[in-house]
Amino acid sequence: MVIPESSRSISQEDLLRLLGVARNWLNSPPGCWLLESERAVMRKALPACFGHHLVQYGLAAELLDDERTVLRNHWQLDLLGGPSALPVEETQWPFAPHSLDAVVLHHGLDFCLSPRSLLREAGQAVRAGGHLLVFGFNPWSSWGFNHFAGRDWFSEAGFISPARLTDWLELLGFAVEKRVDGCYLPPLKSQAWLERLRRIDALGQRHQLPGGGFYFLLARRQALGLTPRRQRGIVFPTLHLPPLVAGNRRTHKRNE
């Protein structure tokens, strides 16, 4: 079975611009609400991960700032780089195969040139028994309406459905152990309205109703047959970090 290619493309330059706009949006009321909800999910999910090496890649570089002590070694990878992040290309990570205990993709698949290539790169770095933690925007939600309607940066973000992502993970040898949904209100710009409607959001989270603005998948790499031998010694086989180059990214406008 082959993971299908998608429809539209976006240049590397446009992707970096899109990522910058989305990160600025995280400072808005709906952006702060999104991060607050996702951090709550992370606090409950990380104790299921064990080991020493964790890598985070994606939209918010500071998502795990309060949880750095869960795993001993913690690296941040980023297309734009930064004071605490390693600048990398999405398909060329400086880690040996099967060397990481956990990888967090915080909307990384929503902001990349090729979601399936990024997922493959992240997956092959995870050891047998290790975890892949993926946050994504749900196309079947009020947030997805903004995506299909072409509003703001939502129109260019990936919005890959959780069902499709689950299929991709299975192809790469991962089993989804847990799914959590959150943000059941539309991304309202008014903080006052978000506060007034929090009861609706709390109800959706309590019963894990379908239609949350984001979803979280906790997937574990399966050990089929003989367990691959763990790469001993240095986690980084080399630290030749390539510069960003022009490329194409496929966005997901619909699930066919």
From TrEMBL:
Query: What InterPro entries would the database entry show?
Result: Methyltransf_11, SAM-dependent_MTases_sf
Which intervals hold domain Methyltransferase type? 91-134
Can you tell which superkingdom this protein's organism belongs to?
A: Bacteria
A matching Pfam family: Methyltransf_11
How far does the signal peptide extend, from start to end residue?
none
For this protein, the record's SUPFAM superfamilies field holds:
S-adenosyl-L-methionine-dependent methyltransferases
GO molecular-function terms, A-Z: S-adenosylmethionine-dependent methyltransferase activity
User: What protein am I looking at?
Assistant: Methyltransferase type 11 domain-containing protein
